[in-house]
Amino acid sequence: MTELLGLSILELCYIAASITFIMGLKMLSSPDKARKGNLLAAYGMGIAIIATILFKEELTADKWLNYTLILAGLVVGTVIGTRMALKVQMTAMPQMVSFFNGMGGACAAVISLVEFDHILHTGEVELGMMIVIILGLIIGSVSFSGSIIAYGKLEGKIGDKALPAGQILNIVLLLAILGLGTFMAISGEPQAMYIYILLGLSLLYGVLFVMPIGGADMPVVISLLNSFTGMAAAFGGFLYGNQAMLTGGILVGSAGTILTVLMCTAMNRSLTNVIIGSFGGGGAAASGDGEQGTIKEISATDAAILLAYANKVSVVPGYGLAVAQAQHTVHNLEKILDDKGVEMTYAIHPVAGRMPGHMNVLLAEADVPYPKLLEMEEANDDMSNTDVVLVIGANDVVNPAAENDPSSPIYGMPIVDVLSAKNVIVMKRSMGKGYAGIENALFFHDKNRMLFGDAKDSLEKLIAEVKNL
Amino acid sequence: MDSVLSLFYENREFIFLIIVSIFLGIEVISNVPAVLHTPLMSGANAIHGVVIIGSIIIMLQADPTNYFALILGFLAVVLGTLNVVGGFVVTNRMLEMFKKKDK
């Protein structure tokens, strides 16, 4: 086989892979084709990987170690990755995505390290190469350490911690990284020490960048880090003149950025505000223990009567529903109420749960039909006709402070307007605060009744009571 | 100045490709319903696993006696594979739940 033939096959495979990435992403945005789209992109990736191994370099006997290690790496990664992905609980999906994203970032950073080392040995310094290597290293490492922190936070292993001068420190650190990076690019004399300092600083920045961000902002951060890794992959594509890496990386970079912006818009905040303004840390300064009223509890029996004699019931699900694994139970309640002629729908806040669409995925798992899942605006339009709103494990997305308390850290975020409905029942484990760590005046409102307990237990009690009526 | 200009000129095709891809990325997902935000993010996450190709190229080009490159390259292949395989499997699991069973 001539070398030209092999290289042509390789490029054809890259073109094919790029097409599957574009088609895959396109299909992922339509419910019917999403699964096929994912598989299509996966096939494309497989083709690109195999073609690279076979056709990129001439197969020679003296590189047996290289090939063995490539295959070993592929096997190890596949076995671990598949096991992790198959074992993870639905509730833990967001952190799983964050973790895999971090792996991609680390991969990009390691590539930069090796290429830098290569330049050190050959001594051939090219401005373009240096820029790409340095940017790949910075973005890859920030994405890696940031994703791992996000993973730890969502797993509950790492708490929200804001350093006293966190913001200033972050800006100084970012300037230092950019300064050192620029210096390394234009100095023309690569030194091993600098790249490791840059690596350390970038890893530290990723940690400090995500550390103070909490609560409602976590989805935005994961999406942002996702697009970071996309960019890092694209820099890799630049480095090797590889179109598959370039298109794949840029596609994810831009699509991820748009997704991030969509989420910020949904929360009525700007991206800079999310990045610089710390959500979790700032919460302490805002509305403290001020206006506390009395809360009114409701028994499962009374709640069941309220539900069974309503015309319209709206459920506002939140992270608590996911934690309690109550998606099937809530669907059962819906079916029983349906038998009684009660119309029950779900009001899905765009950032309910820990990721956008988290609630949709969860409820889809329980076979809740699509038309029952209303987006927030649609649900709000209908709220004044709703008799009972059942808030299950949601807190910040129904906090009226977002509308009427300018000092609140979530001020300006659109919320599900539950107070327009005739009755509100909040199902909660305790009076604990939401993920954003702030009080919720809704709980003390006249219209509201609290039903304490684990979401699943409470729902089961409700079902039993409704059946008895 | 000259070096910047030549950098631009030598890479003009890539820059062109990047700009087109950016708009393509925006266009392709702009109509995504909120239902699919999580799977889309997860699917996109798997796609940027293409970095793995870079790690394979490193391994292919590494001198068999350059253990630094071989070890780091191996690490990169593992990390990249985790991203690709884990990403696609998780996305598939999420999307499996969207299968309509009532039809």
Order the strands across the largest sheet of chain A as they lie in space.
3-2-1-4-5-6
Sketch the major β-sheet of chain A. Answer: 6 strands, parallel
Assign a percent range to the helix content of chain A.
Answer: 55-70%
The number of strands of chain A is 6
pLDDT averaged over residues of chain B: 86
Which pair has the most extensive contact? A-B, 114 and 83 residues
Mean pLDDT of chain A: 85
Helix/strand class of chain B: mainly alpha
Q: Which value, in Å, is the CA radius of gyration of chain B?
A: 19 Å
Residue fraction in strands of chain A: 5-15%
The SSE string of chain A, one letter per element, is: HHHHHHHHHHHHEHHEHEHEHEEH
Write down the secondary-structure element order of chain B.
Answer: HHHHH
Uncertain spans of chain A, ≥5 residues at pLDDT below 50?
278-291
Overall strand count of chain B:
0
**Poorly predicted tracts of residues of chain B:** none
> How many domains of chain B?
2
Name the quaternary structure.
Answer: heterodimer
Number of helices of chain A: 18
The rounded distance between the terminal residues' Cα atoms of chain A is 79 Å
Question: What's the layout of helices and strands?
Answer:
The complex is a heterodimer of chains A (469) and B (103).
Chain A: H1 3-28, H2 34-55, H3 64-87, H4 93-122, H5 127-155, H6 166-187, H7 192-210, H8 218-240, H9 243-266, H10 271-276, H11 279-282, H12 300-308, E1 312-317, H13 319-323, H14 327-339, E2 343-348, H15 358-365, E3 373-375, H16 376-382, E4 388-392, H17 401-404, E5 423-428, E6 448-452, H18 455-468
Helix pairs in contact in A: 1-2, 1-9, 4-5, 4-8, 5-6, 5-7, 5-8, 6-7, 8-9, 12-18, 14-18
Chain B: H1 2-10, H2 12-29, H3 37-47, H4 51-61, H5 67-96
